[in-house]
Amino acid sequence: MMKKTMTMALTATLATSAISAPFAFAQDKAEPISNEVQEEIATNFIQLTGKLGKIEKRESGMLFTTIEQGDETFSLTIGENTLVLDNTGKKAELKEGLQFTAFVNKNKPMLAIYPPQYAPEVVVVETNDMGIAEIGTFDKDFVNKENTLKLNLSEESQITNLAGEKLAKEDIIGKEAIVFYGPATFSIPAQTSPSSIVVLEDAQPEEEVGNFIEFTGEISDIVTRENSTQLVVNDDKENPFSLAVDNETVVLDNTGKEVKLAKGMKFTAYVDSQKPAILIYPPQYAPEAIIIETEEMGFVTVSTFDENFVNKENTLKLNIAEDTVITNRTGEKLTKEEIIDQTALVFYTVSTKSIPAQTTPAKIVVLTDNEEPSTSAPVIEVLDMIAEIIEQDHYEVNGVKMVPLRVLAESLGFTVKSTGKGAVLTKDNLSYEITRDQKEYTHNRAIKKFEVAPTLLEKNKTYVPQEFIYSLRGE
């Protein structure tokens, strides 16, 4: 699965914007009165809300619906194992136009496509009946972590898991559950006798710290360098970075097929956290693997697997078949035993709903090797990248080489602020102010002159004479 460990970037923003407050109909309950900042409660589930669009039935029997909320769009796939309830906890049918809240396990593999497509564990639809549906994690006293709700369980309270199996009240403790209830007291915490509770199986798993960092984005440009390597540019204003790609970089799509990089492709790059980094801005990484998103069915996850082929997070078990392709990064074939204790990319399509989920992968690419890992801290290489950046990005105007101002100035430690007509550069006691299409500029209020006026040669990118950049570092 493409996670955002960075965070998965492609779907995280949309999902977060769709998260709502607890799903309540007919009444509110008392909230704690405090001026203190409330501690953020960890959860394995995101809540997606909206109005159901047209419901289509796929050949597989799954239902599919697309939800449009202004500029935001996402889809839901509902299978036979998806629990569909109304806000009173009764089983319900999905109908176009109904308001809903979908509860999606954020650790579950998902298709890396846009608009994002989710497979929720539970869908709760709104009715006119009085009823509140709320997700929470409850302690031994059956009080949720937020201290806003205490459950007074009775013999009539139905407690089940997602499969509909009956559970004891002790099975609620420490696990996330959806609680369906009606009236509640106005005490703190509010108290209620729930009609039904659905335990969402897992307690919060321990966070695993992996050896790889994930970077997601969209290819805005590809530059072929003199040494035949490529520089893949993600020019997002909020998170610009570049990827240095060579013949050892694994480049595949989300089904495991080889693919050629091209502008406009959405990707997830896996970078070894122990690999030396180049201190420039925007940052530049050398990934071990780049996975390109397509509309084809295919999940990708990166993890480390034990001798039973279960990953460290206990979320996925591999049932390796004879036709499962297993290679290292250079394409050499490996045995399944060589996966053990190594970090690998796993490509698959269908998995069970068990814990851990089980799948028969189509392809496995081992990213690490059996050599003893270094125990020393990562080495940071500080390289002079000015000449390389200029080589890749420059124009000539009347014989003067014009180079990008912001990326070069910021790589030299300057703060660059746009004025709308130009920019102000500051660092320590240094200050420069330049104006596009004007040869005069100021250096600590002293007026100086460019040979060629700064120019907006590309959208949102001002170019200045090369000599100005070298003067910024005292040359």
UniProtKB/TrEMBL annotation:
<feature type="signal peptide">
    <location>
        <begin position="1"/>
        <end position="26"/>
    </location>
</feature>
<protein>
    <submittedName>
        <fullName>Copper amine oxidase N-terminal domain-containing protein</fullName>
    </submittedName>
</protein>
<dbReference type="InterPro" id="IPR012854">
    <property type="entry name" value="Cu_amine_oxidase-like_N"/>
</dbReference>
<keyword id="KW-0732">Signal</keyword>
<dbReference type="InterPro" id="IPR036582">
    <property type="entry name" value="Mao_N_sf"/>
</dbReference>
<dbReference type="Pfam" id="PF07833">
    <property type="entry name" value="Cu_amine_oxidN1"/>
</dbReference>
<feature type="domain" description="Copper amine oxidase-like N-terminal">
    <location>
        <begin position="395"/>
        <end position="469"/>
    </location>
</feature>
